[in-house]
Amino acid sequence: MQFSLFTSTILRVGELTAHLRRVVESDDLLADVWVQGEVSNANRYASGHFYFSLKDADAAMRCVMWKGQVARLPRLPREGEAVYAHGHVSVYDARGEVQLYVDEMELLGAGALWQEFEQLKQRLAAEGLFDETRKRALPKFPQRIGVVTSPTGAVLQDIRHILERRYPLPQVFLAATQVQGADAPPQIVAALQRVQQVPDLDVIILARGGGSIEDLWAFNDERVARAMVASRVPVVCGVGHETDFTIADFCADLRAPTPTAAAQFCTPDQNELRANLLLYEQRLQRASREHLLDARRRLIQDIHALHRASPQTQIAQRRQRLDELTRDAMRHLRPRLERQRAALAGAQRQLDTLNPLATLGRGYAIVLRDHAVITDPAQVEPNDLLHIRVRDGAFNARVE
Amino acid sequence: MAKKNANLSPSFEQLYTELETTIETLEAGNLSLDEALALYARGIELAKQCNAMLDQAELRIQELAPTANTLEDDSDLELLDGDQAE
Description:
The structure holds 2 protein chains of 2 kinds. Chain A is α/β, with parallel strands linked by helices. Chain A folds into 4 domains: 13-109, CATH 2.40.50.140; 138-268, 3-Layer(aba) Sandwich (Rossmann fold), CATH 3.40.50; 277-318; 357-398, no CATH class. Chain A is 43% helix and 23% strand. Chain A contains 12 helices and 14 strands. A 5-stranded mixed β-barrel of chain A has the order 1-2-3-5-4. In chain A, strands 7-6-8-9-10 form a 5-stranded parallel sheet. In chain A, helix 5 runs parallel beside helix 9 (259-265) and helix 6 (184-195) packs parallel to helix 7. By secondary structure, chain B is mostly helical. Chain B has one domain. Chain B is built from 3 helices and 1 strand; from the N terminus they run ααβα. Residues 1-6 and 68-86 of chain B have low confidence and may be disordered. The A-B interface holds A 139-141, 143, 151, 160, 163-164, 167-176, 190, 193-195, 197-200, 202, 270, 273-274, 277, 280-281, 283-285, 287-288, 290-292, 294-295 and B 1, 3-5, 11-13, 16, 19-20, 22-23, 26-27, 29, 31, 33, 36-37, 39-40, 43-44, 47, 50-51, 53-54, 57-64, 66, 68-69, 71, 80, 83-84. Strand 7 (171-176) of chain A pairs parallel with strand 1 of chain B, so a sheet runs across the interface.
C-alpha cells in the first residue's frame, strides 16, 4: 500500500484524539450514562481526585471522579465493591484513553469478588483455619528460611537485603512461583510443598509485592490457604497491600504488611544482638568480680577464724579465765574470812578479860622469884631478889 | 529449637543460649571461685564466637528446582544431601 500525501489526510495524534473526543461527546448515551461494575485499582491522589477502574468479569473502564463529587460520597468505595456510577464518557487526550467521568455514585456494598472472598473467609474461619491457637511461634534464630515468591521483581531482592542487613546467618531456599494469574494458586501450593522438603527448615516466607485486589487474588485462594495451614513449619505472609487482608494473611502464622516486614519478623536484628553481646560481656565481668570479692571476703573471714583458733589466743583466753576464777574464788572466800575474823576478835576480847595482866591495870602487882609466883610470905627469905610486875612494866626488889 | 545436626559446629542459637545460661548461673552465685572463673572464661569465649559468626556471616540463597518435589532432580537432591552430610 502506498501513502499519498495528496489524497490521504494525515492527522497529528492530537488531532486524532480531539476528533475521537468530539465523536464520543456527541453521543447522547455517552453524555449521560449509568454504569454498574466493581471498583478496582482505586487511587485517591493528594489533589483529592479519585481514580479507579470499573470492571466486571470481562471488561474494564478507566474512571475519574473529581474532588468536589468525591466529597459528596458517604465514603470511598472499597476494592472490589460493586457500584452504580453516573457520568459522561470522554477522552483523556494526553493518553488517548476513553474515560468515564463520574459525577455520582451509589455504593452497593460488596461486589461479586468481595462476596466470594467474604464467603470463603467465613467458611475457613468456621473451620478454624484462622484460629490464633493453631498459630505457631517463629523461631528466634532461624537457620534455614524458605522463601516462596516470584523469582523476578523486587520482592526477592527486598527480602535478601533485609536478611543481609539484619541477620545474614541463615541459608535461604527459594521456591519460585508465579504470584499472579490463574496459574498462581497451584504453583504457590507446589512451591510451599517443595520448600518444606528442605530438612530442618525453620520458617517459610510467602511474599508478594503490592497490587490491586485482582493482582492479589491468588492469595485469596482456598488451595493456598489449606497448603499454608498444612505446612509443617510456620508461614509468615508478606503480601504488600495497605488496607484489606487476604485469606493468606488470616491463615499465616504471622501476617506482615510487606515482604520486607516479613523478613524482619523472621529474624533477630544483629545490631541488637551485638549490643546484647556487649552487655553480656559486662555482666560476665561484673558477676566474676563479685565472685572474686566474695572469695576475698571469705578468705578474710577464714584468717580471722584461724587467728581465733591459734595457741596464743588460747593462752590469752585461759589467762583471762584464770583471772576470772580467782576473782570468783575471792568473792566466795571473803564472807567466810570476815566471819572468822569476827570470831577471832570475840575470842580476843574474852581472852583479854581473863588475862591476869589485866588485873594489874587496877593497881595490883605480881611478885615473881625465879619465874615462880610468890603467893605466901613463907616462900621468901631476906635478900631474895624478887621480880615485881605492875601495869606499865616491871622492876626488881630485895626482901628485907 | 532443637537441631538434629548436633554433630556439626554449634549454631548461633546454641552459642547464644549457652551464653545466657552461663551468665545466669554466674550471677546466681553459690559457686566456688574456680567454677566462677571457668564460667567467666567460657562466657567470654561464647560472646567472642557469637560476634565472629555475625562478622563472618554471608547470606546464602539457593533456588529449589521446580521438580524437586518429585525427588527426581539430581542437582536438587545433591544440594540437599550436601547440607546433610554427616
